[in-house]
Each structure stands twice: as C-alpha cells, then as structure tokens.
Design brief:
seven-stranded parallel β-sheet, globular, alpha/beta, 35% helix
C-alpha cells in the first residue's frame, strides 16, 4: 500500500497570527547571540526561534539588530514575532539571568563539554549562548556558563554554521522540555 502525500497550502497549516503567537506560552529558552557577524545568520536564528516557540532572543556585542534588510530576508517576519533585546555586553544580562535561576549553556567545543542531548528538565529555564562564526564564544562569556554543550562532528570540519547549530540545539531542547513536561502530566498550549 502506497501512502499519498499532498503538500498543504498555507491556509491549511493552522498557523498562528502574530497576536495569537504573542499570547501563546513559549518554551523557557532564551537564545543569546554574541558577536554574530552575519546578519543572515541573525535572521535565520530568529526564524528558528519562532518555529521552536522560544521565549526570547538577546543580541549582544556587534551582533546586528532589526530592522535590517539582511536580517529581514532570512527571518521572514520572525523578528516581529519573537521578543528580543540588545545589550552591548552580555555580562549584565547573564548575571541577571543567573540570579533568576536560569541555567546558562554555551554551544561550543571545550574541555569538559557535554553532548547537546545531555540537558534535562531541571535545567529549564535556560539560556543558550551562540558565539561568533569564526572565534566561537569569547572566554569572558564562557565563564558564565553552567554547562557547555557540544554537537558531535563526524567529518573533516569541526564546526557547523551558527544558525544550523542553533536549530539542532534548540529543537533538541524543545524535545527534551516537551517530553519531560508532557510525561509529568503538564499541559502545554502548543
């Protein structure tokens, strides 16, 4: 027996309006982008954050902020749906999050890093830090991390594009949060 697949039209996808999305409870994850040089990567992370129902994006350092046509091109409107803020240096916001009980996770290859699949329910709420496309996360920013997560690499390269890495890590975080939340009997709006 062969299954038939018909591509859904936009009006069949049950997409939320901006107003509806603003009222929906988000997953307790903040993405912090520090010194991201490509505005296309920034836009792509916004789009992924929207798709994953992430609570917030924080832009720091020389990371560009909306509105910019390069961000808009890849964000496709997600810069309007995902709450965001800018801070020149992440120190202030990371200290504030730590004081609020947020687990700080860097996505980087370091000594003592753990698999990106290694987080669990008690790590939420959390902040995922993504660093510069070439240099990664600055050492002075890594010092704020409770965990450093690593995506294993099996080829000749030792890194992924920052927006691709963000997508992998964010959707794994959402999977873990939802699996453990739904498994405990909690109800999610999504």
């Amino acid at each position: 027996m062969t299954t038939s697949f018909r591509k859904l039209r936009s009006d069949e996808m049950d997409r939320l309006s901006l107003d509806e999305y603003a009222r929906v409870e988000k997953h307790p994850v903040t993405v912090l982008l520090h010194n991201i040089r490509s505005m296309y990567n920034v836009g792509s992370v916004f789009r992924t954050a929207d798709a994953a129902g992430i609570a917030k994006v924080v832009l720091t350092g020389y990371t560009a902020t909306p509105p910019r046509k390069e961000i808009d091109k890849t964000a496709l409107g997600a810069q309007e749906s995902v709450p965001w803020e800018y801070c020149s240096h992440p120190k202030e916001i990371l200290e504030k999050m730590k004081n609020q009980g947020v687990t700080i996770c860097g996505l980087e290859i370091t000594e003592n890093s753990t698999q990106y699949t290694g987080i669990c329910k008690h790590d939420f709420p959390l902040c995922l830090i993504l660093g510069n496309e070439v240099e990664g996360i600055d050492c002075d920013v890594l010092q704020y991390c409770d965990h450093v997560l690593e995506i294993p690499q099996f080829g000749t390269k030792h890194s992924l594009n920052v927006s691709v890495a963000a997508g992998i890590a964010l959707f794994e975080m959402v999977r873990i949060f939802r699996q453990e939340t739904i498994g405990s009997g909690s109800q999610l709006i999504f």
